[in-house]
């Protein structure tokens, strides 16, 4: 029997099958040959929520959830966060290598060149309600860019793809900042090409009447590191949505809008906002034990805890905790930190959380930093989305180059009614069409 194979005995038929094993997987299509007879469709796997299904081969991000390891293109996240800017990391995700100084300069120039929005897009944004949630605004406006750049539909053309990728990475902070200004009723601030990516974002958010906005360097670097930490996370819910929408050859603006929708939910990127709501509900440190007890009794979840893949401390949460110290030296401590630390301390000693391997994830501490920096909780998920756009686009680009990929289309197990007839005696029937 050849190595790297799996022998399957179908007890229904007593037939034996040998299936190749590659990269620790069997091909689901290899199961189709396993049939009880010619009428049988063949065996499928049933995997709600993709608990154990690899949907693609990817060389972008590696996660070892048991050991708490996250790498982009082979580099540990800790090393990238310490030594790189977000735009260098975005380049790495997209092209596979960190840029040298010349490539970096050209890359930054290209991104900077595309930060402005078309005036019609700016005008479009003014029509949202004053209290529109910034994630809804982001998703809708990114989708609207599809109408501004119709050439984006040529998704099989590499150069066209790259042009849209640059536009998206450049324009998403502008859209995000405008959604924030809109919610406050403040005029929009045009991008400033002299500034770095995070500084320019801060400028568009917070510039008032001063002639030139000067960002606090500690906060600008903290934001840039947070962007690095959020840039990609392999086949999560939103990346999968990006790939799924992209697989139909939808243009990247519409596919990114779909990914934004997936990210917005509280079980995914929306968790950072939900953590702040939870901490506000807890109110103070003394109420933490009661809150944890309630959670264990099945009343809600501890937001910012748990992960499908990490069964150890999320390495991003560890870095964020460290950034928090630096940010608080500038902004003063966020009083919610005390509650969060107590929550973590108690949860990590509690059998319920230990046995289920529930640790703080990236969203547990990020919101506390964002709030200290001056962001409203509704903006937190948008702050997750800005850098994740680079990851989504890297995933999408990889999909477009992957000869094995086709339109994404899972199977189902039909458990509904067998064929039946309408009982026309129960309601009035529309006039029958002549046959
Ligand atoms: N608080 C309390 N119990 C939890 C939590 C939590 N945060 N997360 C999971 N559990 C329990 C869950 O009830 C289940 O218990 P039991 O075995 O008794 O039924 C067990 O742990 C396994 O959980 P699961 O729901 O099967 O795990 P999953 O892989 O389907 O869900 C998750 C992963 C992230 C959706 C979930 O842990 C969760 O809802 N966490 C809170 C929301 C959150 O912080 N999301 C951000 C994720 S990280 C950023 C990102 O990538 O989006």
Describe the model.
The protein is mainly alpha-helical. The chain has 2 domains: 68-269 and 379-400, Citrate Synthase, domain 1, CATH 1.10.580; 283-373, Cytochrome P450-Terp, domain 2 (Cytochrome p450-Terp, domain 2, Orthogonal Bundle), CATH 1.10.230. The chain has 17 helices and 5 strands. Strands 3-4-5 form a 3-stranded antiparallel beta sheet. A hairpin with a 2-residue loop joins strand 4 and strand 5 (75-76). Helix 2 (86-95) runs parallel beside helix 8 (217-230), helix 9 packs across helix 17 and helix 10 (252-264) crosses helix 17. The protein is globular. Carboxymethyl coenzyme *A (CMC) binds next to helix 16. Carboxymethyl coenzyme *A binds next to helix 16.
Which short descriptors sum up this protein?
mainly alpha; Citrate Synthase, domain 1; Cytochrome p450-Terp, domain 2; two-stranded antiparallel sheet; binds carboxymethyl coenzyme *A
Short description:
50% of the residues lie in helices and 5% in strands. It is mostly helical.
Q: Unreliable runs, pLDDT <50, ≥5 residues?
A: none
What name is given to the CATH topology of the largest domain?
A: Citrate Synthase, domain 1
CATH architecture of the largest domain: Orthogonal Bundle
Main CATH class of the largest domain: Mainly Alpha
Major sheet characteristics: 3 strands, antiparallel
Please compute the radius of gyration using only Cα atoms: 25 Å
Q: In percent, how much strand structure appears in the residues?
A: 5-15%
Number of helices: 17
Across the major sheet, the strand order is 3-4-5
Number of strands: 5
* Cα end-to-end separation: 60 Å
CATH superfamily of the largest domain: Citrate Synthase, domain 1
The class by helix and strand makeup works out as mainly alpha
What is the mean pLDDT? 96
User: What share of residues is helical?
Assistant: 40-55%
Shape from CA axes? globular
How many domains, as an integer?
2
List the helices and strands in order.
EEEEEHHHHHHHHHHHHHHHHH
Instruction: Identify every distinct bound molecule in the structure, by name, code or SMILES.
Output: carboxymethyl coenzyme *A
């Amino acid at each position: 029997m050849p190595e790297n194979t799996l022998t399957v005995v179908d007890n229904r038929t007593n037939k034996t099958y040998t299936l190749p094993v590659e990269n620790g997987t069997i091909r689901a299509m290899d199961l189709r040959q396993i049939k009880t007879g010619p009428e049988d469709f063949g065996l499928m796997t049933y995997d709600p929520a993709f608990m154990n299904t690899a949907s693609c081969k990817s060389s972008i991000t590696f996660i070892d959830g048991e050991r708490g390891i996250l790498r982009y293109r082979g580099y540990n996240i800790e090393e990238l966060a310490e030594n790189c800017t977000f735009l260098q990391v975005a380049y790495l995700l997209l092209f596979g290598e960190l840029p040298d100084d010349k490539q970096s300069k050209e890359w930054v120039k290209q991104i900077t060149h595309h930060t402005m929005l078309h005036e019609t897009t700016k005008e479009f944004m003014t029509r949202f309600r004053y209290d529109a949630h910034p994630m809804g605004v982001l998703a809708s406006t990114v989708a609207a860019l599809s109408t501004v750049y119709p050439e984006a539909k040529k998704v099989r053309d590499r150069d066209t793809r790259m042009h849209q990728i640059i536009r998206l990475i450049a324009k998403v902070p502008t859209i995000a900042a405008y959604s924030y200004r809109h919610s406050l009723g403040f005029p929009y601030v045009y991008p400033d090409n002299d500034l770095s990516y995070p500084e320019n974002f801060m400028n568009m958010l917070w510039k008032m009447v001063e002639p030139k906005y000067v960002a606090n360097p500690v906060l600008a670097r903290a934001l840039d590191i947070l962007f690095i930490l959020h840039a990609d996370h392999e086949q999560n819910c939103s990346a999968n949505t990006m790939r799924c929408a992209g697989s139909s050859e939808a243009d990247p603006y519409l596919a990114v809008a779909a990914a934004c929708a997936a990210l917005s939910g509280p079980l995914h990127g929306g968790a950072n906002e939900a953590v702040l709501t939870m901490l506000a509900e807890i109110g103070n440190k003394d109420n933490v034990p009661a809150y944890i007890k309630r959670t264990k009794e099945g009343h809600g979840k501890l937001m910012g805890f748990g992960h499908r893949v990490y069964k150890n401390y999320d390495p991003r949460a560890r870095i964020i905790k460290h950034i928090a110290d630096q940010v608080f030296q500038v902004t003063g401590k966020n009083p919610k930190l005390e509650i969060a630390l107590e929550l973590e301390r108690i949860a990590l000693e509690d059998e319920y959380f230990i046995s289920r391997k529930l640790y703080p994830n990236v969203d547990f501490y990020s919101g506390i930093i964002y709030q200290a920096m001056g962001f409203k909780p509704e903006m937190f998920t948008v702050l997750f989305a800005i850098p994740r756009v680079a990851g989504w686009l890297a995933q999408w680009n990889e999909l477009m180059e992957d000869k094995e990929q086709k339109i994404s289309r899972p199977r189902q197990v039909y458990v509904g009614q067998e064929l039946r007839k309408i009982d026309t005696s129960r309601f009035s029937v529309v006039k029958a069409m002549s046959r």
